[in-house]
Amino acid sequence: MKYFHFPFFVLFVFFLGCNILPFQKKENNQDMLLAALGILANASDWVWDLPPGFPVPIVPSENPMSKAKVELGRHLFNEKILSGNETMSCGSCHIQSLAFADGKDFPAGITNVSHPRNSQHLSNVAYMPRLTWSNPKMTSLEIQARAPMFGESPIELGLSSNVFLDKLKAKSIYQSLFTNAFGNADTAVNEQNVRFAIASFQRSMISGNSRYDQYTFRNNKSALTASEIRGLNIFNGEVAECFHCHGGFNFTDTSFHGGATEEFFYHSNGIHTDAYYAGLPSNKRGLFDLTGVASDTGKFRAPSLRNIGVTYPYMHDGSFMCADANNPDKAAGAAAGKTKVDCARDALTQVVDHYRSGGQAHTAKDVTLIRAFTITDSQRNDMVNFLLALTDDEFLTNPKFASPF
Ligand code: HEC
Ligand code: HEC
After folding, report:
1. Binding site: what residues are annotated?
2. Residue nearest to atom 15 of ligand 1 (CA)
């Protein structure tokens, strides 16, 4: 709507409908009217319902938010027609109850070949100026969606042609969903609009009602326990240094900051040695895979720690996990009375122990921030308790983000 003065735009749409503008050809008339009405309806109906403390996300001007696009995107995100053999969707590796991560170290796509890194959670992905673990070319959700849809190395959804568009057109629900979002369904069902709608849906996935948020932004001073508050203070202090890389409302230093400023960084947090990375194939060495610069080996974007209590296993390769791996509350885990929270607690205890020890000797490691520090085991447990208070149950169960199928 930036380029149109609102009353004139309404008039313009009206004239379009009357078929009296000079450029109008009769046969295009209906389509254009529908499209214009679509734009008019859409441009004004999106209201960000943001938690206190959250800035307004930056949205690319070519893909403004609308309720109809988000609703179409919610369907497409969970639509198995979006995979080569109709067995998987985005939602197969991004599961709402796990904050849209999937609990695996290396998830596999439709050909059952493992991805070199693990599935990232998607809480507040609208605020990420660079996407994925370590690919600086992934500058928008619109661009990123191409990788799982069409990527060949690794194969995720394994689409190799536009046949999926014909299948979408043939499924009746998509007629009205595409028409509402983009105008006439015949022309609106195209590859770009599929990605745009999915991007809009993902931008709507805002998570900001954890007990930490209630304590910090909603002035509910009883929302955190004394132990969690101690943990928060250690997290934000100069002994543990966590906040340097996991700071701000989204717990990462890669973020849009106040308006249009974007910042993105890649770090090594010292989980592996140089020798370890040297032995890995060239799609598993972090930022180095993209830049070829030796000092970028083992560097990754600091993940947002929101909902960290459900996004295990931790790190790009799932290095830190509880003993009873994939099903903590089933089988052995259940027999031992273990729950998912126990699993997260085990794995997060390993993570904090990793940082406390200073990590592995690794050339790319930022040794001013990743170096041994002294806290007691009880203080370490306080930090783990604090991290577990970042879980936003409302986000994990909100029907707005659930699969419609
Ligand atoms: C086979 C499992 C799988 C499927 C299917 C899948 N993803 Fe992912 N997703 C991943 C993995 C693994 C990563 C990390 C990618 C990397 O670092 O290279 C990821 C990363 C992402 C990210 C980056 C998040 C961030 O914080 O930067 C987004 C966004 C995303 N996926 C969206 C999608 C969408 C949209 C689809 C469907 C079109 C999809 N994914 C399908 C596994 C999957
Ligand atoms: C120098 C920057 C830096 C500092 C300081 C830092 N981290 Fe990290 N953190 C990272 C990076 C980078 C990763 C991802 C590394 C990877 O996947 O290989 C990460 C990953 C994590 C993860 C796993 C997240 C996930 O989704 O898998 C947790 C939990 C975590 N850090 C907690 C902490 C805590 C607690 C502290 C303070 C004791 C801390 N970090 C200090 C950069 C940092």
Report:
1. 90, 93-94, 242, 245-246
2. 132
Structure token digits, residue 324: 């009873």
Residue 3 has what pLDDT?
38
Say yes or no: do domains 56-206 and 211-396 share a fold.
Answer: yes
Cα 393 to ligand 1 centre (Å)? 22
pLDDT of residue 85: 97
Class (C level, CATH) for 211-396: mainly alpha
Nearest Cα to Cα of residue 386 among 231, 263, 280, 255: 231
pLDDT value at 330 more than 70: no
Averaged confidence pLDDT in the chain: 88
How close is the Cα of 354 to the center of ligand 2, in Å? 10
Tokens of 126: 């609208």
266 vs 323, which has greater pLDDT?
266
Task: Give the pTM.
Answer: 0.90
Domain boundaries along the sequence of the chain: 1-45, 56-206, 211-396
Query: Per-residue pLDDT averaged across 40-50, rounded?
Result: 77
Digit-coded pLDDT (tens) for 199-234: 999 999 999 999 999 999 999 999 999 999 999 999
Distance of CA 390 to the CA centre of its chain: 16
Distance from residue 120's CA to the centre of ligand 1 (Å): 6
Peptide bond into 57 cis (omega under 30): no
Class of the CATH-defined domain 56-206:
mainly alpha
